[in-house]
Amino acid sequence: MFNKRHGMKILWYLALLVVALAATLVLAGQLGFLSGTVPRKLGVTDGRLSPPSQTPNSVSSQAALYPDHPQKDYANIAPLTYAGDGDAAMEKLAALLQKSERTVIVTRRPGYIYAQCSTALLKFTDDVEFWLDKPNNVIQVRSASRLGRKDFGVNRARVEAIRAQFSS
Questions:
Q1: What are the distances in angstroms from CA 18 to CA 13, 28, 46, 125?
Q2: How many degrees, rounded to 5, is the angle at CA 120 between CA 114 and CA 124?
Q3: pLDDT tens digit string along 12-63?
Q4: What is the pTM of this model?
Q5: Which of 83, 85, 140, 151 lies at a CB distance of 3.0 to 4.6 Å from 131, suitable for a disulfide?
Q6: How many CA atoms lie within 13 A of 140 on its CB side?
Q7: CA–CA dist 65, 69 (Å, integer)
Q8: CA 62, CA 75: separation in Å to the nearest integer?
Q9: DSSP state of 139
Q10: 3-class DSSP state for residue 153?
Q11: From CA 72, how far away is CA 103, in angstroms rounded?
Q12: DSSP for 40-97?
């Protein structure tokens, strides 16, 4: 028959199981098992960054260029704006990214920056690209999670934080 002592023992084992699973998840993240793989298609092709992800885990200032894309509305975000010299704006952006925590610039060439951003605890990695669109006086941006179907607004928050720093 079920008694209070037996119930407490089950709760204790369940709590121990939850703690063990959480510790395993953190360890997996710290060892790089949750970082995902680098996307095959990065960069600019015919004036376009890659389209947004097929699931709600990315943002793109060029989402409108893909009118039939299922995540076009979710992914839509404004490009970064600048005044003056576009190359100087990219230099400012690169300096800002270099100072950002858990951000590594992987590729930097004239008019283009590709960086990887990771979360502190689980080391999930997101890919962030910036392309200098000189004819429109903007810097196009795309930020996408490698893993998971949702990003819980992390990519949008990152781009908006970068925008706030870049604008100041």
A1: 9, 15, 49, 25
A2: 55
A3: 888 878 877 776 665 655 666 656 788 888 999 999 999 999 999 999 999 9
A4: 0.83
A5: 140
A6: 24
A7: 9
A8: 9
A9: E
A10: coil
A11: 26
A12: S--S-BTTBPPPPPSSSSEEETTGGG-TT-TTHHHHB-PPEE--S-HHHHHHHHHHHH
d(CA 56, CA 64): 15
- Cα gap 57→142, rounded to integer Å: 11
Query: Measuring CA to CA, which residue among 157, 155, 167 is closest to residue 80?
Result: 167
Q: What is the C-alpha separation between 112 and 91, in angstroms, rounded?
A: 10
Q: What's the rounded Cα separation, in Å, for the pair 16 and 162?
A: 40
Question: Residue 58 burial (CB < 10 Å; 0-12/13-18/19+)?
Answer: buried
Residue with tokens 């699973």: 21
In Å, how far from its chain's centre is CA 143? 5
User: CA-CA distance, 26 to 32, in Å (whole number)?
Assistant: 10
Give, to the nearest 10 degrees, the angle between helix 86-99 and helix 154-167. Answer: 120
